Amino acid sequence: GHPEIFPLLLTAKTQEIFNCQPDEDVTEENNFKCIKKEDIIQDLKTRAKSSDFFPFKKVILEYPGEELLVVFDPTSQYGENFYIVASEEAKEDFLKSLEAAEEKEETEEENIEEALEVRKPWVSLGSEKEVEEESLIERDTKIKYKISRVRRQFGAPIAFTDKNAADDKESYAECTAYEDNTFSIKMLERDVGVQMVPKLREASTQTKWTYPKNASTQYYPRQLSNEAKAESLSSEKLKKFLTAVHLRVEIALQQNEIMNVFFDDWKALAEDQEEGKPDVYFKEYQSFTDVQYLKNRTISCVRWHPTIYGIIALSAREQPLYEEQVNLSNKSLLHQSVILVWSLFDPLCLQLVLKAPEDICCFQFSPSNPNFIAGGCVDGQVVLWDISKHEEKLESTKPVVEEITDSSEGEPTAAVVTEVTVGLMVGYVQHSSAEPPLVRHCAASSTPNCHTKPVADLQWIPCNVEENQKGGTSENKDEKKLQLVTCSPDCSILFWDIPSMERREEFLSAKLKEERRSQLPPDDPDTDEDLDLSWKPLIKVVSTNTECRDRAKLCHCHFPGRVRPRSTLRAPVKESTCTEMSTFSSKNLELLEHISTDFFVGNEDGKVVYSEWKKKIDTNTAKPHSQKYSLHTETINTLQKSPFFKDIFLSIGGQKFAVWKEGVTNGPILQSSCSAGRYTAGQWSLTRPGVFFIGRDNGNIDIWDLLKKTHEPSHFQNISKSIITFISPSSASAEQHFLAVSDNLGVLHILEICQTLCQPPSNE
C-alpha cells in the first residue's frame, strides 16, 4: 500500500559510513535520518555493486530532492532493517506525522502538570488523635517509694520456726492458675530468621622431633670366580626361579611394547588449548533473497555445488500450517516451483532457474557428475535436470586470481580479487535486469509408480555400485551409469536408474512441442499424461504394516567401501514380516555378496530404524531384519552420516539429538537432554570430527563441541528472527569455510566460520 517505500538492508559498514547505527545514531523513538543524495551517489561510484543502495540506483538518481529520508525499521515491518522514502510528498507527510505526535505528547504532559497543580485541601478525619494517644508523655510529678527499717533491728539475730501455712492465711499468697488469652491467639503468619554458622574448633598437633644425624652406605659388586658362576648358572634353584617368572616377564614386555605407561593422557589433551578463551563466532558473509520466487515462501533445501567454488542452489516451498502438511500433494498452488542457483561473486543476479512441476522438498547434486541434479516434489514425483550446457556460465563467475607484487620484499604473491573488484570488472557484463536462463527438467517420474506423498529425502548411490531388480548389489562397470534412492512418508523406498541421453533429449523435445501446441490458461490441468510419465523406478521397497507408515528420512546406504562379513552383526535382531519388495524388470548381473545393504531410516514418530533391504534371489518377497529405537518425540528432520566415520551418524528431531554407532545395539552412544525449544535442522562439521551445528525454532544456531561440553552447546549465535529450516556447510579453502543457513522467511544467510571451529586440535 506504500509504493514510495522501498525496504533497504544496510550492513554494519554502510551504517558506519552514513552515521545511522541502531541504538546509537537512530533509535525506536528517533528512527529517521536524512542523507544527502550526493553522498549516496558517491557511495555508488565508490563501491559499485557492493553498495547497499545499488538495487535502488535508478530510484535515487530520479529523486528530485537533495536529501533522502532513511527510516530505521527495528520490527522489519517492510522486510528489512531500514527503508527509504522515495518521494517528497511521503517525506513531508512522515515528518509532519512526527511533529503532530510530539505536539500531542507535549499537550498530554501539560494536562498532567495542570492536574497535579490543582490539589484538594487536606481534611482531618481523626487520625491525629490516634497518634497523640499512642505517643509517650512523661508526667510532671513522679511517684516515689521509700522503704525503711528500725535501726535497732539492723544486725539483730534471726530465728526461724516452723508454722503451718493453713493457720494464718495472711502469711502467704496463693497463685492460682488461670488461662492467659495472649497465648491462646492463633498466629496465621510468623516471621522467623535462622542463621547457620559453621562450628569452629581449635586444634593443634606437633610432630615428634628427633635429633638429626648423618648416615651413609657404601656398596660394591660381589665378584665371583668362574667356577662359582658356572655352578650358580647350572643350579636347580636358578632354573626353578626362571621357570616361575618367565611368563610374567613376557607379559610385562608385551605391555611395554603395546603402550607407554609413562605417557600422560591428561597433558596430551590440553596441549592445543590456548591461554585465554578463543573467539567462536559466525561472520555474515552474504545473504540471498528474491522477491519474485521467495516471497512468503520457506526454503526447504540448500546445496553447494560439489566442484565449482561459490555456486549454491536452494529450493523453496509454501509455508503450510501443521494441519496442511499431510495433504500437500492434493493442494493446488498458483506459483512457480523452481530451484534457484546463485553465485557468491554475483549476488544480485540469479545464475540459473531450474523449473519444476511442483514444489521441491529436497534435491541433490550428483557427486560423480555434478551436472545432474535430482529433486523430490511435494506430490511424490522425482525430477531430473541436466545443466551441462550451462557449466561454462557457472565457472565464469569464479573470482579472478592476479599476481600482486609485495613492495617490501619484491616477490609476487597470488591474491584472489574480492567481490568489490569482481563487481567492477564483470558487474556490467551481465546486468541485473537480464533474465537468468530457465532450465527445464529432462526427466520426470510416472505418477502411478512414484511416491504418493512428498519425497522426504534423496541420496545418490555411488557410481561403482549398482542395485538390480533381484534385491542384490552388483558392481557397476559403466562410470556414466548413475542411480539414486528416495524415500517418502508413504513408507516406500524407491531405487531409480538415470535415463539415457536419447531418452532425455526425446523428453525435452516432446515437452517443448507440447508447450508450443498447448495454449490452455494456467488454471486448466494438462490433459496429456504420456509426456512426463515416462520414468519408472527400478526397485520399490514398500512396508505393508500400518504402524510403519510414517515419514521416512533416509540417512545413507553402505554401498562403497563397506566390505565386511555378515557375521560382524552380533546384535540380536528380530524378523519382521511387514515389508515386501516389488520389481519392474530383470537383469543378469554378478552379485557382490560382501557389500552391506543396511540402511538407517527416521520416521514421523521419532523412531530410528536400522534395517536392510536385501532379499533372497530365488523368492519374490523379502523379510528384512530391522531394529527400532524410540528416542525422539517428534518427526526426525535430520539423519546424517559423519564425514569422518562411516559408522557414526547424527539424528535430530523434536527437542533431542543423538549420535549413533553402527553395531551398537543398546541405543545411542550420546544423547542430549530435552531442550527448551525445538531442533529444526543440523549438520556435521566438514573439518572437525567432534563439532556439529544445530538450528532451532528461535533462529539460533547451537555449536556443539564434544571436546569441551557434552551436556550443553559450547556456543550459540542468533542468525534470524524465524525458524532455521536448513544448514549446509562448505569448505572453500583451508583458511575459509562457509555455513549456509536458511530460514522460514525465504532468506539464505552465508556465514563465514571462524578458524577456531575449522582447525581441529591434535587427536580429535
Structure, explained:
The protein has 764 residues and is of the alpha+beta class. The chain has a domain of 103 residues. Helix content is 17%, strand content 27%. A hairpin with a 6-residue loop joins strand 29 and strand 30. It is flat.
Distance between the termini: 56 Å
Instruction: Please state the overall shape, judged from the principal axes of the Cα atoms.
Output: flat
Helix content: 10-25%
Structural class: alpha+beta
The radius of gyration over CA amounts to 42 Å
Summed up, the helix count is 12
Major β-sheet profile: 5 strands, mixed
Number of strands: 39
Subcellular location: Cytoplasm
InterPro entries: Dynein_IC, WD40/YVTN_repeat-like_dom_sf, WD40_repeat_dom_sf, WD40_rpt
Keywords: Coiled coil, Cytoplasm, Repeat, WD repeat
GO molecular function: dynein heavy chain binding; dynein light chain binding
Entry keywords:
764 residues; alpha+beta; five-stranded mixed beta sheet; five-stranded antiparallel beta sheet; 12 helices; 39 strands; flat; WD40/YVTN_repeat-like_dom_sf; WD repeat; dynein heavy chain binding; WD40_rpt
